[in-house]
Write a structure and sequence with these properties.
135 residues; alpha+beta; six-stranded antiparallel β-sheet; 36% helix
Length: 135
């Protein structure tokens, strides 16, 4: 499994409600269906809220979100799954990705640690996604 697949599978296996996981994974496996996924991100309704931490209004800025993610173990780079075709499918510096995503209104997942830590923003809100690995 390559890095892109690892990040995308991690997003859907860890941060999407169980009832929708298989469907999204099926769609991911078919390149022609990718647009169906990214088009649904503007008003995404399938986040598993058990693993989504809403960001306080005073922290909803690039610098604060970057610091929050870094304090939780995020590396310097992340992977983007986005309705923004300029970002989608790219690995890029976390700080740059956040500058492009925060406040854009474009539904985007930024995967920092596959299946363990990420960020999601759509037109309805901003969330840190975190799932602790059981030891």
């Amino acid at each position: 499994m390559n890095s892109q697949q690892e990040h995308e599978r991690g997003i859907f296996l860890s941060f999407i409600i169980p009832a929708r996981r298989d469907r999204y994974l099926e769609m991911l496996a078919k390149p022609k269906r990718r647009k169906d996924i990214t088009a649904s991100l503007a008003h995404f309704k399938h986040l598993d809220m058990r693993f989504a931490l809403q960001i306080l209004p005073r922290q909803q800025h690039v610098t604060e979100i970057f610091q929050l993610l870094r304090s939780m173990g995020a590396p310097e780079t992340c992977y983007a799954l986005s309705e923004d075709s300029e970002l989608d499918g790219k690995e890029l510096p976390l700080s740059e990705a956040l500058k492009q995503v925060v406040g854009s209104g474009m539904g985007t997942f930024l995967s920092c640690l596959p299946g363990r830590l990420g960020y999601f923003e759509d037109e309805d809100g901003r969330w840190i996604l975190q799932r602790r690995v059981e030891k």
